[in-house]
Amino acid sequence: MDDLNKPFLITKSLYPENQETPIKFLPHHLIPTNYHFKRNHFNYPKILTQNFLLPISGEVVKSVTFYFNQIINFPATTFTGLLECAGNNRSKFDPKTFGEQWEEGAISQGRWRGVSLSKLLSQTGLTTDAKEVLFEGYDFGKREDSDNYVPFARSLPLKIALHPDTIIAYEYNDKLLSIKHGFPLRLIVPGWYGMASVKWLKKITVINYPFTGPFQAIDYVYYPKDIEPFPVTTTNVNSIIQYPLNYSILDAGNHTIEGIAWSGEGDITTVEISFDGLHWSNAVLLKNTTEPYTWTKWKYQWNALEGEYTIFCRATDSKGRRQPMNAFWNKKGYGYNATPKAHVKIT
Amino acid sequence: MDDLNKPFLITKSLYPENQETPIKFLPHHLIPTNYHFKRNHFNYPKILTQNFLLPISGEVVKSVTFYFNQIINFPATTFTGLLECAGNNRSKFDPKTFGEQWEEGAISQGRWRGVSLSKLLSQTGLTTDAKEVLFEGYDFGKREDSDNYVPFARSLPLKIALHPDTIIAYEYNDKLLSIKHGFPLRLIVPGWYGMASVKWLKKITVINYPFTGPFQAIDYVYYPKDIEPFPVTTTNVNSIIQYPLNYSILDAGNHTIEGIAWSGEGDITTVEISFDGLHWSNAVLLKNTTEPYTWTKWKYQWNALEGEYTIFCRATDSKGRRQPMNAFWNKKGYGYNATPKAHVKIT
């Protein structure tokens, strides 16, 4: 057969290539590379010899340029972690917002392996003026709001940059990163939305001022209606219903409602199901307490009688954050995490 | 690279396998088989020796069972034709309707090759009681509304069945049909919504009564709000905007708005563009007058100034049918053809 019985990535735009994971149809704990969502700002960079060098300079005691094989020879840090695009579910905001119209698939999860950035910074040292760490990728191009070429670049506060699980990654699911996902080196910042995990790392600069590049101070900023703008950082508590599908028609009888829930801060403590948005019952969590950066699978047994239903689902994390019924609207459409719904008819 | 820079089919459900064509991203006049949308009611049938026989019986002078290689040795009829699923764009109905939530990609087009059904029927003859021709596929299963196993089966009025371009097809784009698209033999009824083009043909029966199987008299029937139900037959006049994408952000300057338009009855005579839904200007049609069953590409040059815009597009066919501003709502969500819109921001 020329094509197997399987889902594929869902294209949202070709140039740059933005494709979402068919997340409703994937039971995997580790999403294979070819199902990992792609979110690009520019065309893919060409991989040249120089890409295998990683200079660290700026507010350091000693600038160091690391070679790729030095980096892979440091003791490694490995964890399974999810990445969610800050614009995931943007298409669901009401009023609608401009930008890539992601549905629920701008999220994936896999095993990342790399070296703690803190290990590299312990080789360079930091001056007392060090405030942020700036990451620049090899990807660059023109934005709609300017005629200048700019690279994709983002900074992290020193505290986050020095966290032992902030890594310079070189493997995904036990293979070298694929070219489309940041080969040879990318940053991984677990718990933060995906924009923080800069791909195709070109250089790292420790800086003594707040970085204000366009992907830091124009994009990836929440612009709410009535309050001051503030930056997009950690992943909101969120969930999806993988079964049943929205507007599906099902036989009466037993069905297992199921899905996943996640948070960039703390663990998922409860997932609740409701059929009216008012009364809630706990779903069963299939927790994996040794993997703090992964999503939690959940299930709910339902004996469905004939009729039409709306299934609601909401997750709560150990920081007490709970999914709202209505999304927190902001002009650029980031951080959508309203309770998902599935409308079904039972016949 | 493990995956090329390309779109893929978009999965709507896995069992049965329903996937739509990434039509916004395909410039092809002939959609390759692996990009043709899949719409199944049941699991794929197994292909066995018996599938290579096609019996025609019922209200005929002489029942005949045709062998596959008899069928391919008749003089062939070849044309390029589109198939659109009757549920295409169902997700856009308001109020929403149950069923597969197709967006705009349940449409494809390619070159079909087969034998005119009328040639086969001229071998069997017809009795004077012949009223309809019934087509049964090898695909079968349980529906949500019954515990019985039923095959996918549909009938055609004699007049349509005898049209010279109603064919028993065995090739798509100059290759044998793929297993997922009806191999070895399927019906193609140009101008009609896709449900008429029964796949994996098992048998043909000429009948003297109106067929009332569930895919004829329960599904594929328009159930409007205030008027009597009536059957789904020919494809409505319709169009899509392929560029620009909805809610995209573009540079000021020249842009070519483009897309395709089609009708199951007659030719596309005009495609009009509007920026307010009131004032309309003609797009340029790239007509292909020798291919009556294909879509028509259209283009419109736009010098875009800064601001936010809604682009409307509407097609008219040579029968005088024109796309409405609002869809004709019906309970099962068939035949959606409201004017498409693309909201864009120019910066």
Description:
- Chains A, B: Keywords: Metal-binding, Molybdenum, Oxidoreductase.
- Chains A, B: Pfam families: Mo-co_dimer, Oxidored_molyb.
- Chains A, B: GO terms for molecular function: heme binding; molybdenum ion binding; molybdopterin cofactor binding; sulfite oxidase activity.
- Chains A, B: Its cofactor is Mo-molybdopterin.
- The structure is a homodimer of 347-residue chains.
- Chain A has 347 residues and is mostly beta strands.
- Chain A folds into two domains: 222 residues, Oxidoreductase, molybdopterin-binding domain (Sulfite Oxidase, Chain A, domain 2, Alpha-Beta Complex); 109 residues, Immunoglobulin-like (Sandwich), CATH 2.60.40.
- Helix content of chain A is 6%, strand content 39%.
- The first copy, chain A, contains four helices and 23 strands.
- The first copy, chain A, has a five-stranded mixed β-sheet with strand order 4-3-12-7-8. In chain A, strands 5, 6, 9, 10 and 11 form a five-stranded antiparallel β-sheet that branches.
- In chain A, a hairpin with a 2-residue loop joins strand 9 and strand 10.
- The radius of gyration of chain A is 21 Å and the shape is globular.
- The two termini of chain A are 35 Å apart.
- The mean pLDDT of chain A is 96.
- The interface between A and B is large, with 42 and 42 residues.
What's the structural blueprint in terms of helices and strands?
Two copies of one chain form a homodimer.
Chain A: E1 10-13, E2 18-20, E3 53-58, E4 64-67, H1 68-71, E5 77-84, E6 107-116, H2 117-124, E7 132-142, E8 149-157, H3 158-161, E9 167-172, E10 175-176, E11 186-188, E12 201-207, H4 214-217, E13 221-222, E14 230-231, E15 238-243, E16 248-250, E17 253-262, E18 268-274, E19 281-282, E20 284-286, E21 296-304, E22 307-317, E23 341-346
Parallel strand pairs in A: 3-12, 16-23
Antiparallel strand pairs in A: 1-2, 3-4, 5-6, 6-9, 7-8, 7-12, 9-10, 9-11, 13-14, 15-17, 17-21, 18-19, 18-22, 20-21, 22-23
